[in-house]
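Journal club side-thread
Mid-discussion, someone asked how the predicted structure for our own chain would compare to the paper's figures. Pasting it here so we can look after the session.
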Amino acid sequence: MPKPRRNIESVAESTLYPPPTLPPTHSLARVVKASGNNLYTVQLPSQQTLLVELPSRFRSTIWIKRNGYVVVNTEALAGRDNKLDGEIVNIVGDEKAWRRMGYWPEEFKKVQVVGVRGREEDEEEEEESNVGKMPPSEDEDEDD
């Protein structure tokens, strides 16, 4: 039997808005890869990688994409004797709203990528571009 719609909507809504502050045991992390069934490898702002678990309230409700952001509780699984380093507490839904918060780490700030090509090369490419044009006819090929 699927989850009730109200539960799905409440979980989705809870990920949209960032909390005013983060507790000391919580940290923002970037998702590096999915490591298994509800397990994810994340990277903290200090470049440390952790293996964290997705709690049951998020499973089959919200999907986490690679290079997305999550809030991780590093003390949640401290008492357990296993390879897990923490638990995902929240998933960053509206990234713009989260980036405005004071606790967003400098290491996760967006950087703008500058193109490698120079301006002259771009102009030449625009002149020679065949996008949206018809292929040359046989008459034009003979004249060249």
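Post-session note: The helical segments are 5-16, 95-99, 119-128, 138-143.
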